[in-house]
């Protein structure tokens, strides 16, 4: 659609140029009659200034319409880029949330593993307690065997003497009482052993419960990883769409640059056509030259203000300068910007600011426009 508008503008411009040339040729006498001796005859060609002004005004209106269409297209491209940037930020937020969920699952797995270690330590202590009880029971059994041996010795001595038997019988009763106590202690140790085994069984149940919690945490981590992969795939798809949109934007910019170059060539042809008329007007007095110089300085200051507004100022830039050369189209569109002299960092930032402005306002006067199309500006942050 933009190419059709430019084609229509080119056709209209060529028609107007043809009418202007026809008007010029209409008033020109191409006859080759020999001069007559009767006297000198002076023929003059009259160009209607009103017609020239009207045609120039129509050409300017066509240029302004083409400029407005170009500005609208650039605005739409900026809106599309902003929408893609918002989508990219949303994808990054979702990935950060997914990462937080994964860290939470890993923390739960570590806690389950620590709990499992604690249960294993409790089981080990219970087994030690069990072995301790068994050792004490063994010692009690040894004591019981010793008591039985003593009992047998007492019975042997009792057979030797009645008096001794009675004494030994009393000792036997005493030994049996001690054995009974030992048996009670053994039963108590056995009960302690059973209690320890019950505690170990409970500890094992707790370990199984913790192991189940760990498996659950690992399952949640697996699900979170699958979700992360799905989010990553969605992000890659969005990135592919962004690259596609970027390629379309670059192609549109290439076409726009081609159209701008065509427009520049047309403007150059028009400027060459009107150069003679404008030069004659500029030579009418020194006031015209001063006016051109003043207007050039005024618009240079406007350009500097626009660049300062777009400049990303760093504290290190204060007190430094950079000289930038700009080459502009007749409608103010930036064609090229280069660093001439000054601080390297400030020059890079200044060049970026010039690109952000992209199109500068231009005056109506063609002579001032011509001086502004190739201009040097000094950028000095204050």
Strand order of the largest sheet: 2-1-3
Shape: rod-shaped
Pattern of helices and strands: HHHHEEHHE
How confident is the prediction overall: mean pLDDT? Answer: 80
**Number of β-strand runs:** 3
Class inferred from helices and paired strands: mainly alpha
Distance between the termini: 45 Å
Radius of gyration: 52 Å
Query: What is the makeup of the main sheet?
Result: 3 strands, antiparallel
Beta-sheet strand percentage? 5-15%
Report low-confidence residues grouped into runs of 5 or more.
30-35, 39-44
- The proportion of residues forming helix, as a percent range, comes to over 70%
Contiguous helical run count: 6
Organism: Photobacterium atrarenae
Pfam family, one: TolA
Keywords: Membrane, Transmembrane, Transmembrane helix
Region (Disordered): 109-215, 227-255
Can you describe what's shown?
This protein has 382 residues and is mainly alpha-helical. Among the domains are: 106-238; 285-382, Fusion Protein Consisting Of Minor Coat Protein, Glycine Rich Linker, Tola, And A His Tag, Chain: A, Domain 2. Helices cover 80% and strands 6% of the residues. It contains six helices and three strands, in the order ααααββααβ. A three-stranded antiparallel β-sheet has the order 2-1-3. Helix 4 crosses helix 5. It holds the Pfam family TolA. Residues 109-215, 227-255 are annotated as: Disordered. The chain crosses the membrane at residues 6-26. Keywords: Membrane, Transmembrane, Transmembrane helix.
Please describe the structure with a list of short key phrases separated by commas or semicolons:
3-stranded antiparallel sheet, Fusion Protein Consisting Of Minor Coat Protein, Glycine Rich Linker, Tola, And A His Tag, Chain: A, Domain 2, single chain, 382 residues, mainly alpha
């Amino acid at each position: 659609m933009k190419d059709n508008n430019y084609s229509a503008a080119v056709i209209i411009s060529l028609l107007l140029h043809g009418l202007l040339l026809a008007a010029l040729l209409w008033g020109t006498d191409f006859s080759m009659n020999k001069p007559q001796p009767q006297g000198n005859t002076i023929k003059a060609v009259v160009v209607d200034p009103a017609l020239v002004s009207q045609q120039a005004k129509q050409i300017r209106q066509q240029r302004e319409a083409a400029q407005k269409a170009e500005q609208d297209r650039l605005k739409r491209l900026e809106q599309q880029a902003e929408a893609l940037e918002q989508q990219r930020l949303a994808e990054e937020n979702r990935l950060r949330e997914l990462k937080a969920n994964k860290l939470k699952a890993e923390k739960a797995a570590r806690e389950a593993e620590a709990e499992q270690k604690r249960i294993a330590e409790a089981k080990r202590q219970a087994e030690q307690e069990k072995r301790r009880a068994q050792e004490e029971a063994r010692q009690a059994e040894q004591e019981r065997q010793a008591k039985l041996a003593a009992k047998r010795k007492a019975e042997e001595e009792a057979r030797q003497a009645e008096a001794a038997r009675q004494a030994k019988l009393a000792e036997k009763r005493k030994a049996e009482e001690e054995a009974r106590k030992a048996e009670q202690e053994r039963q108590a140790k056995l009960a302690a052993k059973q209690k320890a085994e019950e505690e170990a069984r409970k500890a094992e149940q707790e370990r199984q419960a913790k192991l189940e919690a760990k498996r659950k945490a690992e399952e949640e981590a697996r699900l979170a990883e699958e979700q992360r992969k799905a989010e990553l795939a969605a992000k890659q798809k969005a990135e592919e769409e962004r690259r596609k949109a970027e390629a379309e934007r670059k192609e549109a910019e290439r076409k726009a640059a081609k159209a701008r170059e065509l427009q520049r060539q047309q403007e150059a042809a028009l400027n060459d056509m009107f150069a003679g008329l404008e030069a004659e007007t500029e030579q009418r007095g020194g006031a015209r030259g001063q006016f051109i110089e003043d207007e050039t300085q005024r618009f240079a200051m406007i350009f500097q203000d626009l660049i300062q507004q777009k400049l990303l100022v760093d504290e290190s830039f204060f007190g430094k300068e950079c000289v930038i050369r700009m080459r502009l189209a007749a409608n103010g569109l930036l064609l090229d910007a280069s660093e001439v002299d000054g601080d390297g960092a400030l020059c890079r930032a200044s060049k970026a600011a010039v690109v952000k402005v992209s199109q500068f306002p231009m005056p109506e006067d063609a002579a001032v426009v011509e001086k502004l199309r190739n201009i040097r500006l000094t950028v000095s942050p204050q």
